[in-house]
Amino acid sequence: MVTVRFAPSPTGYLHIGGLRTALYNYLFARHNKGKFLLRIEDTDRTRYVEGAIEKLIEVLKWCNLEYDNIPIIQSQRLDIYKKYVDELLQKDFAYRCFCTSERLEEMRKNQIAKKQPPKYDRCCKDITKEESEKMAKEKTFTVRMKMPSEEIIFNDVIRGDVKFHGSLIDDQIILKTDGYPTYHLANVVDDHLMDVTHVIRGEEWLSSTPKHIILYKYFGWTPPVFAHLPLLLNSDKSKLSKRQGDVAVEDYRDKGYLQEALLNYIALLGWSTEDSQQIFTKENLIEKFSLERCGKSGAIFDIQKLIWMNGEYIRKLSIDELTNRAIPFIQKAGFDTSNFDFLKKCILLEQDKIKVLSDVPHLIDFFLKDDIIYDEKAMQKVIKKEGTSTTLSTSIADILKDIINVYSQIQNFSAQEIESETRKYTESKSLKTSQIFHPVRVAVSGRTEGPSLFHMLELLGKEKVLLRITKIIDTL
Fold this sequence. Notes:
The chain is mostly helical. It has 20 helices and twelve strands. α1 packs across α10 (282-288) and α9 crosses α11. The longest helix has 16 residues, at 16-31. It is elongated. The termini are far apart.
């Protein structure tokens, strides 16, 4: 059975690149009717962030990437790793290193000064087992694996045959002085014990793979199939980083991107279909995903395309679903959300303009509060006479007073009736519709743009519309 895993480190937030790795593993597993497992790689205690595991699990749940196991926590498995370290020591595939951090740093500086690649000089490799065991009782040590001086070749599904030469690779530390294994050992041991058949991970781990291949050889295990995904890049082709924008999945969630849209977009960063399809349901992605369609080149993260795609998904939501998803953002803005039906009507008028859910409070706020804020540019452009700041032009004032009279007479304050009576008034005064529509819009909403004017007036209701028009006449 195909078995894959997502193995993040709890060092803070989940990076967008990490989400793509999780997604590709998930899609591959589901496409092949296999297992998608979660493992938390927390053996680097210097980088561990309290609460990060819970956040990782929360984000995966928000993305609906369901894993098929109780998550494995590496820090709870130290005895297992020590057993395998001892096996390597016994077989002479590893050795204890007693070098101090000061010596290693001095060695590194000298190598750099001589323009040599920094690499451990194997000072402790030839210490006898007996002497090593004796020294281990008195000194702190790490354990290093012995890298053979041979060519290491493995096949990568995405990159084809990849070659490294062991003589150029450091004797990697596999057990630290604190008793915790390093990534390399714990990764290989757990992948074997979890029956992982395919390792799908980022390109940055490609150079680690020969070390892993050798560990599989030392233990007598069959390596999994490897697939190394291309980097995610900024628009300038630098590695995607927080310096140029959001990289945490939580940031996109909190700004109101839909998880469906985010996953759809992330799926296309390094993978494509033959027909260049852009919009996918989750089921579509599972059906069509294959590692063979993944590219080698770095994928540029285009925030504008993500915004476009998110808008496409928002327009496809039912108004009930969209309202439910928007409510947390409306509440965060400080508005009452108890009247669900009214919120639905407000949001429906603006659904085509919503790009992210955090847009919603601003788009509909004038429906939800009594005291609206008038945009000064809108006031200068539409209401106030050019060159004055405190008085209404006579024509605008007269028009708005007339509109109050017209609207007061409407019994059925519906969009159709309001439009009909407004147009009759416009014709009777030989005015352009813009001379009426724009001032009314600004008077009742405070802005020059918004939903269909007459549907907006109907939803606000006659009383509120008349109050707002009266207010703008009285206050200016």
